[in-house]
Design the sequence.
């Protein structure tokens, strides 16, 4: 029997249950993967709370890495012993093993450890499409504002932004998080709890504002993010840790300087096979070559899923968090 975390109703972390489950054999186009590590992502809390509705009961988690231990027919070249990682549907990554469709998998280069992959596949692909796809006008020398700069995606995005020649202003809550963000590429730090973010952005940019804001917070930071943009800048709504973004007032977008707002989803940037390969190859190359370092600062057991979600929502984590299952 495998171990899995499931939920039967939406709500707080306490709705998560650890259960023994029968996995079964893979069918056509499927493989069975034994996980070595599972990614803990803020998006997981959206499913748990019902913000992202799914049929119940259901599994939890969208990201993991491990080794294929059984294959069904027509598995597109995947074989027993392959090291793989994945992010996306179906839910159920919080488990020791599971059956997965091969269309969700990425073959893992030899130079990347399984724990590193579980800590960076979703976060790294997110950073990749944010920086490479969401603002076609952004170029080397531009300044960006990155909220939650000491988080898992933030640390990857900061490093990647520096590879692209961007100047990075990051927001954090504490001195410890500021030190971590600076070590991973942030040029300037704003303490969002005690500083006026748009006012500081204007000071740091000579009154102009930034080309792009990557906002993972949502409701609480939306207005400040808009005010931080330069004329015709782009606000990328990457996450909603504080709640959903408010309805868009088209006139306000014009008044703010003819700015743009986009609320992208990773699934729409890896649905096309060529684009999926482009982003994943770029990510894996940077990680394997040491250009982007993955900080795994929290490790949990699956039995600790409730506490892991509490820590995540309380802002107690930095960098990436994983469940160790091997």
Sequence:
């Amino acid at each position: 029997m495998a171990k899995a975390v499931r939920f039967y109703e939406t709500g707080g972390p306490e709705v998560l249950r650890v259960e023994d489950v029968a996995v079964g054999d893979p069918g056509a186009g499927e493989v069975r993967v034994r996980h070595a590590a599972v990614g803990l992502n803020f998006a997981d809390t959206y499913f748990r709370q019902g913000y992202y509705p799914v049929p119940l009961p259901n599994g939890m988690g969208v990201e993991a890495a491990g080794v294929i231990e059984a294959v069904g027919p027509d598995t597109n070249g995947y074989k027993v012993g392959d090291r793989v990682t994945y992010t996306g549907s179906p839910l159920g990554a919080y488990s020791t093993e599971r059956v997965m469709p091969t269309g969700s998998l990425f073959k893992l280069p030899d130079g990347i450890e399984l724990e590193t992959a579980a800590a960076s596949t979703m976060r790294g692909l997110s950073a990749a499409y944010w920086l490479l796809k969401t603002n076609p006008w952004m170029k080397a020398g531009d300044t960006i504002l990155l909220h939650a700069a000491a988080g898992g995606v933030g640390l990857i995005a900061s490093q990647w932004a520096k590879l692209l020649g961007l100047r990075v202003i990051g927001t954090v809550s504490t001195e410890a998080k500021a030190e971590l963000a600076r070590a991973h590429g942030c040029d300037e730090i704003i303490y969002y709890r005690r500083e006026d973010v748009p006012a500081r952005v204007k000071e740091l940019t000579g009154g102009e504002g930034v080309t792009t804001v990557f906002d993972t917070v949502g409701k609480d930071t939306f207005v400040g993010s808009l005010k931080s943009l330069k004329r015709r800048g782009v606000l990328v709504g990457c996450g909603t840790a504080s709640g959903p973004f408010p309805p868009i007032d088209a006139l306000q977008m014009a008044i703010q300087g003819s700015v743009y707002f986009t609320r992208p989803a990773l699934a729409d940037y890896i649905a096309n096979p060529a684009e999926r390969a482009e982003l994943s190859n770029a990510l894996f190359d940077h990680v394997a070559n040491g250009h982007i370092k993955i900080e795994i600062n929290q490790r949990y057991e699956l039995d600790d899923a409730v506490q892991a979600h509490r820590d995540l929502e309380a802002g107690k984590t930095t960098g990436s968090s994983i469940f160790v299952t091997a």
